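Here is this case:
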Amino acid sequence: MTATVPAPSPSSPSSPSDLSAPSSADGLGRRADIGVRVLQIVLALFFAVPSARPKLVGHWSAAESLDRIGFGDWFMYVVGALELAGAVALVIPLLAGASALALIGLMAGAFITQLAVFDGRYALTPVLFALPLGLIAWTRRHRTAQLLALVRRRA
């Protein structure tokens, strides 16, 4: 009687080099996927709490800054709602890439506003947030494609 050794299944790594093989739906390795997920959570917390919350409750600091833009209080609430929606969508796997793209658009508007209204004093801040959002959008691009396909099928 001879014993046969079953071939390794595709889901189980057979050697140390297989450990770095992409394991997620987005084509990332496990560590990279976890790192991007942590980044998504950190950015979601930032956009929800210190960024959107003051705008949504009408805190004087947010109102004062957005009054200088000249659009009125309604604009403060809209920006706060967009930031909160983006924060929530960042932690939903199917929406994370699209959310990151939308928040990059919001950061582009903030950058232009910083240059035009606030003399560029904090113009680098939106750029610094757009960079990790770009990484999220790029790494989650397959999910964004899935979302677009789903929307097209339903339309």
Q: What stands out?
A: The chain is about 70% helix and 0% strand. Confidence is low (pLDDT under 50) at residues 1-23.
